[in-house]
Write a structure and sequence with these properties.
The protein has 379 residues and is α+β, with helices and mostly antiparallel strands. It has 12 helices and 13 strands. The strands form 3 sheets. It has a 6-stranded mixed β-sheet with strand order 9-10-8-13-12-11. A 4-stranded antiparallel β-sheet has the order 2-1-6-7. The longest helix has 34 residues. The two termini are 49 Å apart.
C-alpha cells in the first residue's frame, strides 16, 4: 500500500496510508501536470551547465583558481555549454513532433520563437553557428585575454579569431558576409554566453506557457485538486511525497531489507498553472483582506481601510461604469482583532465562471499557497 510521507531534515516521516482508489484518482488528476513538469525540466541540464560555467568563471575572477586551470578547463566548459544548447533545442523539437505532430500549432510556435531569436540577435546567430564549428574543430574560442580593471579586479575576455573561424568551416554566405563586415579582427564571445541563456529561457517558458494557456481551465482543476490534497498536510513545512515499500511485507515486518518507491508531486508546475490563471483574470477580480476594528457596511463602495479600522463595503459596486458583485466574503473574529476577506468579480459572467473562481478562492485561502491570492489584491 502507498503512503503519504514528509521529507524533513533528511528523514522520511510517514503521515497516512493512501488507498489504491484514492491514489488512482490522484494519479489521473496529476497526469497532465506531470506531462507539463516533464517539459519544464527540459532546461534543467542546460541551466545546471550554465550555472557551473558561471561558478567556474567567478572562481577565477575571485582568485580561487589559477590562470593555468582556466586555460586548461574553460574550453571544455564552453564546449559543453554550446553542445547542451543544441541538445535543449533538439529535445523540444523532437518532443513537439512526437506529441503534437509535424504540422502542429506547437511546432509553428517553436519555429517562430527560435527563428525570431536567431534573426533578431547577433549573439544567437554567432553562438548557434559556433557550436557547429566547435563540434568539428574542438575549439569554442581561440584566445583568452586577462586584465585588471581600475579596482584591480580581473577582467576576462574569450576571443574567436575572425580569419581562422571563417576558414575553418563551410559557412552560409549570409553568415560569412556578416562576420566579414565586422570591423574587429577578433570577436569576444564572453558576454554572448549569458545573453544566449536568456534567449533559451525565453523560448522555453514561452512554450511551457502556451501549453498551459491552451488548456488552462482543465489544468487549473488538476492543480486545485493537488492543492486540496496537500491541504490535509498543511501543518507540514516540508515536501509531501507518495511512498511505497517494495518487497514482501511479512518479510519486511521481520526486519528484512526492503526497497522503496518515492513519487514526487508536481507542485511546481501546479503553482505555475495557478499563477498563470490568476494573472490572466486579475483584471476581472479584486480581493480585499483587512484586519482591525470593523465599522460596518457602506453604500456602493469597495471595502475601505482607515488606520486600524475598516468598512466592509456593499454587495454590489459600480466602479468606472463597471458593476462588481461579491463572489466570496468572510468576516471572522481573531484574538486581537476582526479580519475581513472579500472577493469581488465583474458582473455578467456565466455561472460556470463564478463557480470556478469561487473554487479557486476557497481552495487557495485555506492552503499554504494563500499568498497567491495577493495577485487579486486591489492596488
Amino acid at each position: 500500500m502507498k503512503r503519504v510521507a514528509c521529507f524533513k531534515n533528511k528523514k522520511l516521516l510517514g503521515k497516512s496510508a493512501l488507498s489504491d482508489n484514492k491514489y488512482n484518482t490522484l494519479k489521473n488528476y496529476l497526469k497532465p501536470l506531470n506531462n507539463l513538469m516533464h517539459e519544464l525540466n527540459f532546461i534543467y541540464d542546460l541551466k545546471s551547465c550554465f550555472k557551473d560555467l558561471n561558478s567556474f568563471l567567478i572562481k577565477y575572477i575571485s582568485g580561487e583558481i589559477s590562470s593555468q586551470i582556466l586555460q586548461n578547463d574553460l574550453n571544455k566548459q564552453v564546449l559543453n555549454y554550446l553542445s547542451l544548447i543544441r541538445t535543449f533545442l533538439d529535445k523540444w523539437e523532437k518532443h513537439i513532433k512526437e506529441n503534437f505532430g509535424k504540422k502542429s500549432k506547437e511546432l509553428e510556435i517553436f519555429k517562430n520563437l527560435t527563428n525570431n531569436e536567431y534573426d533578431k540577435n547577433f549573439y544567437y546567430r554567432f553562438l548557434y553557428n559556433l557550436s557547429n564549428y566547435a563540434r568539428h574543430t574542438g575549439y569554442a574560442f581561440h584566445q583568452i585575454s586577462e586584465s585588471l580593471n581600475k579596482d584591480d579586479k580581473k577582467n576576462l575576455e574569450t576571443f574567436i579569431n575572425k580569419k581562422i573561424f571563417l576558414e575553418g568551416f563551410n559557412w552560409k554566405k549570409s553568415f560569412s558576409d556578416e562576420i566579414n563586415s565586422l570591423p574587429e579582427d577578433k570577436i569576444n564571445i564572453y558576454p554572448f554566453l549569458n545573453d544566449m541563456f536568456k534567449s533559451m529561457e525565453k523560448i522555453h517558458f514561452k512554450l511551457v506557457e502556451y501549453n498551459i494557456i491552451k488548456d488552462i481551465n482543465n489544468l487549473l482543476i488538476n492543480s486545485l485538486f493537488l492543492v486540496n490534497f496537500l491541504n490535509k498536510y498543511k501543518d507540514c513545512d516540508c515536501e509531501i511525497l507518495i511512498t511505497e515499500f517494495v518487497g514482501d511485507m511479512e518479510e519486511i515486518k521481520k526486519g528484512k531489507d526492503f526497497g522503496m518507491n518515492i513519487e514526487r508531486l508536481p507542485l511546481k508546475i501546479a503553482t505555475l498553472v495557478i499563477k498563470t490563471y490568476l494573472n490572466a483574470h486579475k483584471k476581472y477580480i479584486k480581493t480585499f483582506n483587512f484586519k482591525g476594528q470593523y465599522l460596518g457596511k457602506i453604500i456602493n463602495s469597495f471595502p475601505i481601510k482607515k488606520n486600524n479600522d475598516f468598512f466592509k463595503g456593499s454587495e454590489m459596486v459600480t466602479y468606472g461604469n463597471i458593476k462588481w458583485i461579491i463572489l466570496f466574503s468572510e468576516l471572522k473574529t481573531t484574538p486581537n482583532d476582526i479580519e475581513l476577506f472579500v472577493t469581488y468579480v465583474i458582473a455578467g459572467f456565466s455561472s460556470a465562471y463564478y463557480e470556478l473562481n469561487l473554487k479557486v478562492i476557497k481552495t487557495l485561502k485555506e492552503s499554504r499557497f494563500n499568498n497567491l491570492l495577493d495577485l487579486f489584491k486591489d492596488n
